[in-house]
Amino acid sequence: MAAKDTPETPPQRRNWAAQMAPDAMAAGHAALARAGFSDPALILQWEKIAGPETARLARPLKLSQGAQGGVLTLQAEPAAAVFLQHESRSLIERINRYFGHPLVARLRFVQAALPQRPAAPPQLRPAAEIPPGDPVLSFNGPDGMREALCRLARARHNRR
Length: 160
What we know:
Low-confidence stretches: none
Shape: elongated
Distance between the termini: 69 Å
Strand content: 5-15%
Order of helices and strands: HHHHEEHHEH
């Protein structure tokens, strides 16, 4: 077998716990580099760069460099692709203005349904007051336990 045909060996065990961030960052940079994004800002700041309406309709997939400049491939909702094609000049200007140099010269659209964004977490209501007849008020134990029981009672009354 040639050297490049050999299967990749697993990483050597360290026999101690280590932070996960360096490995995750390396994996993230490798995935973005395969898609042509040397700088992750285009993906991470997409809503700020393109605007909330455009970001809702399209997301960047790939950035490739060609002879005439960069080509940004966007995944767009099928009904919105035609609309975005008409707005491509202003979108290219916004992208290039954000980066300060001509990064994108042309946009390419791939029509596909975008995955749904996760729902925003529910807003917490302010803590309710404990009613005067609640048994937690008559607890005569340690202060830490009393405060924990009071938080539990507030949460219980908040749910109602």
